[in-house]
Amino acid sequence: MNLKCITIAFSAACICGLSHAQTTTGEVKDDFKPSPLNQPGKAYPQVNSQGYARFRVHAPQADSVKVSLGLGGQGGTRLTKGADGYFTGTTAGAMDEGFHYYHLTIDGGVFNDPGALNYYGSTRWESGIEIPAPDQDFYALKNVPHGNVQQILFPSAITNTSRRAFVYTPPGYGKGNTRYPVLYLQHGWGEDETAWSNQGRANLIMDNLIAEGKIKPFIIVMTYGMTNEIKWGGIRDFKIDTFQTVLTGELIPYVDTHFQTLANRDNRAMAGLSMGGMETHQITLNKPEVFGYYALLSGGIYKTEELKDKPKPKLIFLSCGSKERPEGVKNATAELKAAGYNAVSYVSDKTAHEFLTWRRSLLELAPQLFK
């Protein structure tokens, strides 16, 4: 595994609060509307058609309010206090399209924005804001048949506790005897098993693809990858052994026992974003007899020498944002293809280490699974 590649990706994520709001010239359009991720009835934060974000926070006793955007919450937009006790401010430039974490720093204390919904990221519940993307229709809530996302609790001997996972089952699941392939889908550092359905809209992406007849329906299983057991920057100290046992020795047998699955390698895939991609890389190499499809989303690459003398995967999918390191993904894919592997690369346009990159990656990956 190229740990340097993952570390660079994490560093990019850490400073995304700075890069998402770079200073630009020109007039800022006054067509701001509430963010789609606001609490019910809350007018702020707001987003305009250019991708600028505007914040308004009531803190009459405070002296200073700053908004820090992105995983890790670096940089920030300082808000100006008005006579009415409201702090207001607009980002210095347009933000990248898609989902972003953020929080408030009020007189040195860290708080969530009471106007926004909360999402688990940066090892805590953070506020979320959505900058509408031109292709947002593929993850929109539509009037189509919907699958279910259910919480399961499964026993884990290695951790001496019950652990949680969320399972997406497609529309029509359970109405007959049909058995389904399974994708095990991992979150990144700072996140947990709620990330892919909340921030990632994975269930809506699947519902829409199934309704359009573009994919073979399959189950998705999302569980906590123990990524937050290490501190930021400590990726080199992360050991895969415990999570590998939880996933392959405990969760997969539980899912195959309790759900209508096709319980074999050719009908089982693993994918992960960022640090979840690192986990996917390590586990698929260690357990190639368990998974037939591999996917790393902003999560590094596979090298041909790593795959030598192992069962050949049916698909290797590598992706990232155009603002990450797309040349690495493209070059690795070319080398894998030359060596006879079914390798596919995807680069998300105008995005970085963020959920729009990974939503788009899932959109591209899903139709290529379980053919």
From TrEMBL:
Keywords per UniProt: Signal
Signal peptide range in chain numbering: 1-21
InterPro entries: AB_hydrolase_fold (IPR029058), Esterase-like (IPR000801), Ig-like_fold (IPR013783), Ig_E-set (IPR014756), Mycobacterial_A85_antigen (IPR050583)
Entry protein name: Esterase
